[in-house]
Design a protein that fits this description.
By secondary structure, this protein is α/β, with parallel strands linked by helices. It has 18 helices and 13 strands. It folds into 2 domains: 2-160 and 361-375, Glycogen Phosphorylase B (Rossmann fold), CATH 3.40.50; 173-357, Rossmann fold, CATH 3.40.50.2000. It has helices at residues 10-26, 38-41, 59-64, 66-83, 94-107, 128-134, 144-151, 162-168, 177-183, 200-214, 232-239, 251-256, 267-275, 288-298, 306-311, 326-338, 340-357, 362-375; strands spanning 2-7, 31-36, 46-50, 87-91, 112-115, 137-140, 157-158, 191-195, 221-226, 245-248, 258-264, 279-283, 317-320. It has a 7-stranded parallel sheet, with helices on both faces.
Length: 376
């Protein structure tokens, strides 16, 4: 069968590549055409567009690059018409993907499947109308999404969470803390890890404050997790300190050997929880108190971190908007590092999350369902 897949971000490239790998196992005649990245390209098929040409974040960035955005949409539509797929599979990235879903349903009889739901349970809930109208099957990765969609009379299928697969498949069994430090030219002090996000605007807004807070603990060394695609020189320019250690391509290992972490809200909070590192979650918002007050009008969920959303209670402290201060981070780190009862309660919360997410095998289950539905 012929699969047309669209992933518009680095995380989508990863998850889509795993899905492609499993689709090939289920369907020996699988052919791919896609918008995505290098990981998808490694699975074979024709790349129409690299996600790096599509990654515009926020209204201003989209408006400034409107011509490119419109060309990307047109190129995608033309590629679908030329490829004539048996199915179009969308991976998150709703602003782009829902436009394509509409195009497909209005012009072809091709089924449209969504793998990894847009976060409409957090904001832009109105998108449920387009999903119900243009998406035939939705395969979700968070347990709470099932009840959310049920409220809208739209059945979905939970297939597990790919972060469970990523964390459990990491190859870290043969390396000791001492070896990790030696390889990366670190000292033998215990580590506080800083994960500031994957985009430059996130890093510049969050990392300097993170560093100041972690620097209040001289018995620990501070290590920054370098994001893929972000140059070392950029981190140096943001930090203005050549002595800060930055580790690339070893985020899971860094978290495993860290006593605590400050993590920018996103998938990294869930990764940190599954690895078992106590953390404080942060999120920068412009206009501080005003943004914090307005968030309840915009965001439809109680928490912003995946950890707390899955647990349905506060497992980790969230410091957002005007609460994202050096003083608040320092106070939270102090409790994580020195209050054993507080630390243990957080780790128990992590156990609840692991149980809720279930076993690994997300892409395998999703691929099996996709092929099964197409064969019917």
């Amino acid at each position: 069968m012929r699969y047309f897949i669209i992933a518009g971000e680095a995380s989508g490239d990863l998850h889509a590549s795993n899905l492609m790998r499993e689709l090939k196992k289920q369907d020996s005649a699988a052919e791919f055409c896609f918008l995505g990245g290098d990981l998808m390209a490694a699975q074979g098929g024709k790349m129409v567009k690299n996600y790096r040409e599509m990654a515009f974040m926020g209204f201003v960035a989209v408006a400034m690059n409107a011509r490119t955005v419109l060309k990307n949409i047109a190129d995608c539509k033309n590629a679908i018409a030329e490829f004539k797929p048996d199915v179009v599979i969308l991976v998150d990235y709703p602003s782009f993907n829902l436009r394509i879903a509409r195009y497909v349903k209005e012009n072809f009889k091709t089924p449209v499947y969504y793998y990894i739901s847009p976060k409409i349970w957090a904001w832009k809930e109105y998108r449920i109308k387009d999903i119900r109208k243009y998406v035939d099957k939705m395969f979700t990765i968070f347990p709470f999404e099932t009840s959310f969609y049920a409220k809208h009379n739209y059945p979905v299928e939970y297939v597990g969470n790919p972060t469970v697969d990523s964390v459990e498949s990491r190859d870290n069994c043969k390396q000791t803390f001492q070896e990790f430090c030696s390889i990366n030219e670190l000292s033998d002090k215990p580590i506080i890890a800083l994960l500031a996000g994957s985009r430059k605007q996130e890093i510049s807004a969050c990392l300097p404050r993170m560093l100041k807070a972690a620097g209040n603990f001289p018995d620990f060394q501070v290590v920054v997790a370098g994001a893929p695609g972000i140059e070392l020189d950029y981190y140096r320019a943001v930090l203005k300190d050549d002595k800060v250690q930055i580790v690339f391509g070893q985020t899971y290992e860094l978290l495993q050997y860290s006593q605590a972490a400050i993590v920018n809200s996103g998938t990294a909070t869930l990764e940190t929880a599954l690895i078992g590192t106590p953390q404080v979650v942060v999120y920068h918002q412009s206009l501080g108190r005003l943004a914090y007050w307005m968030k309840d009008l915009i965001i439809k969920v109680k928490y912003i971190s995946l950890v707390n959303l899955i647990a349905e209670n506060e497992v980790v402290k969230e410091l957002i908007a005007h609460l994202f201060t050096v003083e608040n981070m320092t106070a939270e780190l102090r409790k994580i590092l020195y209050d054993s009862t507080y630390r243990q309660k957080m780790l128990q919360g992590y156990s609840t999350i692991k149980t809720a997410l279930g076993e690994k095998g997300t892409a395998e289950r999703a691929a099996a369902k996709i092929v099964s539905y197409l064969q019917k």
